[in-house]
């Protein structure tokens, strides 16, 4: 067919439309990647109710059925907008057709248990260790890089002593998350230090107000270990939950105080942030490649402004399967195959790579960082044997 003026115009128009579409698509992917990255790195201050209290029946409570409330075990319930707390025992009934579950009420720590909105939690205990557990508790201030960081100190039964455990909570969690571990450590003769770190509520925020996935938070834990050493510790045990595990691993890699650590306990830890980010990109049905682009934006100079981070977040540095040969501390690693937030795969692979260092214990049924909740006897026995 001979080329005509109209043909040439049509071709140029088609090329222009294609280029415009490509640019728009690229811009859309960039915006989606930046939004996803910010969601991952931004602390969540608003904790909305996620379950409905339908009826209170003496020592039982009827709740709406959710992915959390139908799981066996011990859990907690924040009530009155987070001002009150209830401890719940195991399931006592369920009605699939009605979408309800009934659970035992173990105790009302504060507030009034009545129908209305509530928030389910895995902490089970709430408050300070002396109030929640009856353990003597000292309130301390750790002098951190960014300022004062409040901490709890729970001395061993014979006094503070020289063996200290430093407990690191997960992303967006409160120190209450760590209360479950304290009785086993106390009985085993360890003094426990439960610190806060940057971007926790009521403590200094980082320069950008964002999480750095352990790549800056480890310095706050270093300050906590320094406090323990100044208080008489000559042996340190690190315990990390979820992102707290990622923080602990960065401390072990980067801090000159890592040689004081004799062993490490990790519960539902982030062994590879890249794997976690891919998992959540799939859950949110993001276009293929957006998760990868998000990681690039976090770690590259050109993307930092779009993501809003002061320091580059090099996700590759958090891949401890790839870096397995660099580890040198004995680790007790507990993770559930049914963890919906941090997939179990990297934990399994790390255990296969380093059987000389990693004692791996896998759970079933338990959701994220709720291994203790479904089988507290097993959890406490494993931890007690490992720390002794």
Question: Can you walk me through this structure?
Answer:
This protein is an alpha/beta fold. It has 2 domains: 51-121, Thrombin, subunit H; 129-272 and 319-387, Rossmann fold. It is 32% helix and 25% strand. The chain has helices at residues 5-41, 129-133, 182-187, 218-230, 243-254, 273-283, 290-299, 301-307, 345-353, 371-374, 376-387, and strands at 51-57, 60-64, 75-79, 84-95, 100-110, 116-121, 138-144, 147-154, 163-168, 191-195, 235-241, 261-267, 331-336, 358-363. Strand 13, helix 9 (345-353) and strand 14 (358-363) form a beta-alpha-beta unit. Helix 6 crosses helix 7. The termini are far apart.
What's the layout of helices and strands?
Blueprint: H1 5-41, E1 51-57, E2 60-64, E3 75-79, E4 84-95, E5 100-110, E6 116-121, H2 129-133, E7 138-144, E8 147-154, E9 163-168, H3 182-187, E10 191-195, H4 218-230, E11 235-241, H5 243-254, E12 261-267, H6 273-283, H7 290-299, H8 301-307, E13 331-336, H9 345-353, E14 358-363, H10 371-374, H11 376-387
Parallel strand pairs: 9-10, 9-11, 11-12, 12-13, 13-14
Antiparallel strand pairs: 1-2, 1-6, 2-5, 3-4, 3-6, 4-5, 7-8, 8-10
- Give the structural class: alpha/beta
Query: What's the count of strands?
Result: 14
Categorize the overall geometry: globular
DSSP helix count? 11
**In the CATH scheme, what's the topology name of the largest domain?**
Rossmann fold
Question: Major sheet: size, sense and barrel closure?
Answer: 8 strands, mixed
Low-confidence stretches: 6-25
The averaged pLDDT comes out at: 92
The percentage of residues in β strands lies in 25-35%
CATH architecture of the largest domain: 3-Layer(aba) Sandwich
Query: For the largest beta sheet, what order do the strands appear in spatially?
Result: 7-8-10-9-11-12-13-14
* CATH class division of the largest domain: Alpha Beta
Distance between the termini: 86 Å
Helix-strand topology string: HEEEEEEHEEEHEHEHEHHHEHEHH
Helix content: 25-40%
What does the radius of gyration come to? Answer: 24 Å
Number of domains: 2
Q: Could you state the CATH homologous superfamily of the largest domain?
A: Alpha/Beta hydrolase fold, catalytic domain
